[in-house]
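Researcher: Hi, I'm a grad student and pretty new to this. My advisor asked me to get structures for two proteins we've been looking at. I'm not sure of the right format, so I'll just paste the first sequence and hope you can take it from there.
Model: That works fine. Here's the first sequence with its structure tokens right after it:
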Amino acid sequence: MGNLLAFLGVSKEEERLYRALLRHGSSSSASGSEELDPDTRTSSEESTLDRLVALGLATRNTHGAVRPVPPPRAVDALIDGRLHRLREDLEAEATRHSVIDSLFLERWTAPPSPRAGADDHGQMITQLHGIEAVREAIDELTFFARTEDLTTEPTGLLTEESIAVSHPINMRLLRRGVRMRMIMGSAITQDDTTLTYIRDLVSHGAEVRISHHPIERVIIVDRSAALTPIDPADTSVGALLVREPGLVATLVTLYERMWEAAEELPGEDTDMPSDIEREILAMLREADKDETAARRLGVSVRTYRKYLATIMRRLGAANRVEAALLAHEKGWMN
């Protein structure tokens, strides 16, 4: 058979060894197969096996044995790799030819200033009027995002229209390996549509926390640009696009404080405590001081108390004693 996987970036020799692995199960059980036998294979074959691991076609255990990845997962990994490389190539070409800047020229009578940390008019702070202008700015910022995307949603609720707009943007970021963190208002737990969407993002690598306190609306990309609403009470009015380094750094600090004060997104089975919550419940019996309990769990006192407050709220307990009793009744404590 020819090089069937060539279109996915796999050489003929790589495909031959992958097929051999599939036939024999692993390189350690390849009796009668010289290309897989650790005692007889050449340095070239060893290098090819390393390449299979890098491509996602095989795995290597601590003893050095190489095992094949099941074909469906292997092909999926190859497709993801090919798409990732293609996207990088296309983005590099778009940047090299200044495609976006060229298209922006059609909207403004004066040509944009060179990008040097400022927006397209050379300003560090720009007013964007209307939801469409804001969405266009988000599209541009996320297109160039390379490391991190920080967002908040104070209401905790997303409309179906908003989800339809944000879903492809967020998935594009996650596929490219951009770290995504989101802080949602507590109303998310009462809205199945928003909760389902956010959990889907989490399954693809997003990090999400819930805030039970008022939070500010902000989007920060690569810690170099930020969007905040012109009118926090009515985000449809528009937003401020901020590129001034000092202001962006201040917004990042604000975001980190909100993140620290927020709680982990509950799992699908919200009626059962997480492992850390079980450990904290156990500390109610074993430790008489918060400092002692926190030290035993290897967390800060502040973190310990934050988890404890979450547990009490979930149980509807007025104090720690009542929390312990209710947790015992629900089977949360052994």
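Researcher: Oh nice, that was easy. Here's the second one.
Model: And its structure:
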Amino acid sequence: MVRLQFSVELNYEVAPPGGDFIFNVHAAHTQQQVVLSENLLLSQQVPYTIDTDPASRNRYLRLQAQPGPLQVRYEAAVDIYHHTASPAELGEVPVCQLPGAVLPYIYPSRYCQSDRLQKLASNEFGHLQQGYSRAEAICQWVQQRVSFESNSSHGSTSAIDTVVERVGVCRDFAHLMIALCRALNLPARFATGIDYGADPALGPPDFHAYVEVYLGHRWYLFDPSGTAIPMGFVRFATGRDAADAAFAMLFGSVTSSAPTIHIRAVPDGYGQLVVPQHVSQALSTDGL
């Protein structure tokens, strides 16, 4: 078990007559991610709601802000219990055996045009043995062919764009891996949150996008950007792609600054400190 403590601070300037916000910065409650404590602070005295999607368990903070500065600060502590498995034992699940809740993750979506990447996926990975090793091969292929570069993409960049431009941020790496997996009928979904252990050379801590692939009837973690440590992922949201899991949706005339994020590993109730590290086993924090 890994215990992580973190905070997220977001700052905005809202122009008249005000703006509506939908945030997705609350730690998700999953089978193996337990939220021990959390606190939300708003600089404006405005009403808000926190809704949980029953299927994805994404938690949405909604509010209407008044003109002027708005600061949103969320802090929490979570325990993450990783399910581990030997990669060699994880096979692909035939489409006819997929649970209904998993089916949306084999279809094309806005940023993951798997229908347009079927030939590429078949040529590169169609001959490989099915299972975790094939998903890992896709992950490595994306990591080796796309260069990580901050501010190199924009909100409309898709998997097709990343194939062509060969540059992107974690969001783009995730979209491309997801599209290639789905092109082979391998369910894959987009996940967002923050991570412990990213290379400081990449800049200050930020939100992170990664991939979960459905293998052996569980969702397993992959980081196609290669910039983070999967054992250190704190999940906020999952979806078909970034359109389903944005950390903030803004409606109105609003300007924003870069988020301020802090995260650290802390001892558990018995005083034991487990620091996230790379492992050879497959990791999962969610079944269905």
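Researcher: Is there anything I should tell my advisor about the second?
Model: You could mention this: Residues 132-145 form the longest helix (14 residues).
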